[in-house]
Design goal:
By secondary structure, the chain is α/β, with parallel strands linked by helices. The protein has ten helices and 13 strands. A hairpin with a 3-residue loop joins strand 12 (305-312) and strand 13 (316-323). The radius of gyration is 18 Å and the shape is globular. The two termini are 24 Å apart. It binds acetyl coenzyme *A. It holds the Pfam family ACP_syn_III_C.
């Protein structure tokens, strides 16, 4: 079998127009800009319009990624969409994106690993491309978490927001990839922690959608250790290190988790991409939102070594190391 690399061809993102600031939230629940910024680093989040669905956000991001790649939708034969907030129970939100783009070939499906969804989706698409089963993939993270927030619970509603981001990956023969592509991915889950961050409704349990519930301190307590474990795995698999990476693009959940993880790994703060202040925790969408920002402002360039990581409900966690 030919050795194939999944090479990044484009990245794009989308945030809904409506921004909700910390000051706006202080009108809804007993909180303050000072408390939110100090504990999380978040300053504002974006909220989808009533008629705006997860697939609409995803479509905007996908089109932006295709434009960045200089590709047409017809070039794509695989869509992997990570979301915990799908348009409907079924069909997959990915098929709405596929139809919206006018694609009628290949496969499109959703993947659910909560905040780790984008890293799981990159790993999944990478496996398919490497196997030769598909040639060009749209890997999307898209969420409307505003729809599953309990807006009377100040311990959760201040943390999350809506958004979408997408990456175009192309399977390229390794000898033609010039060292670029997804170098390694490492995925983990441990369902013993499933009740520490969950939604209290669902199709087969309550026949309702439910609201997000979280033991914030417990999540925080586990996050840094889990994140650093899968990053050490990525370094060991490739011989790369905190010194050789160019950019650390973590899941944007919380500034304190990001800073503590980078410090524990010895990653210099100027290599860390942080956008959580602008959009809060957008779950599976947060990494491609951060990637799109750092690519658009000229930080992430072709040939750079980019480290992704995420941790979230389940618990699930994972890392991906990419030569951009
Ligand atoms: N505004 C003001 N006060 C608040 C708010 C708020 N929005 N929320 C909680 N408080 C109060 C609490 O009621 C408590 O008051 P008390 O001392 O009178 O009882 C006080 O603040 C401290 O509460 P804690 O929960 O102990 O606050 P903590 O310092 O742990 O910060 C936080 C809470 C920010 C949620 C933190 O635990 C955290 O970051 N956890 C990680 C959660 C996370 O990022 N989850 C995202 C999903 S998972 C992932 O993506 C990695």
């Amino acid at each position: 079998m030919t050795d194939i690399r999944s090479v990044v061809r484009g990245v794009g993102s989308y945030l809904p127009a409506r921004a909700l600031t910390n000051a706006d939230l202080a009108q809804i629940v007993d909180t303050s800009d000072e408390w939110i910024v100090q504990r999380t680093g978040i300053r504002e989040r974006h909220i989808a319009a009533d008629n705006e669905l997860t697939s609409d956000l995803a479509l905007h991001a996908a089109r932006a990624a295709l434009a960045d790649a200089g590709m047409d939708a017809g070039d794509i034969d695989l869509i992997v969409l990570a979301t915990s907030t799908p348009d409907n129970t079924f069909p997959a939100t990915a098929v709405s994106v596929q139809a919206g783009l006018g694609i009628t070939r290949g496969a499109a499906f959703d993947l659910q690993a909560v905040c780790s969804g984008f890293v799981f989706a990159v790993a999944t698409a990478d496996s398919f491309l490497k196997s030769g089963a598909f040639k060009r993939a749209l890997v999307i993270g898209a969420e409307t978490f505003s729809r599953i927030l309990d807006w009377s619970d100040r311990t959760t509603c201040v943390l999350f927001g809506d958004g979408a981001g997408a990456l175009v990956l192309e399977g390229v023969a390794a000898q033609d990839a010039g060292g670029r592509g997804v170098l390694t991915t490492h995925l983990r889950s441990d369902g013993r922690h499933k009740n520490k961050l969950y939604v209290d409704g669902g199709v087969s349990s309550t026949k309702t959608v439910g609201f997000l519930r979280m033991e914030g301190r417990e999540v925080f307590r586990h996050a840094v250790g889990m994140i650093t474990d899968v990053i050490v795995d990525a370094f060991e698999a490739t011989g790369e290190s905190a010194q050789t990476i160019d950019w650390f693009v973590p899941h944007q959940a919380n500034r304190r988790i990001i800073d503590a993880s980078a410090a524990k790994l010895g990653i210099a703060s100027e290599k860390v991409v942080v956008t959580v202040d602008r959009h809060g925790n957008t779950s599976a969408a947060s990494i491609p939102l951060a990637l799109a920002t750092a690519h658009a402002d000229g930080r992430i360039k072709t040939g750079d070594l980019v480290l992704l990581e995420a941790m979230g409900g389940g618990f699930t966690w994972g890392s991906a190391l990419i030569r951009w």
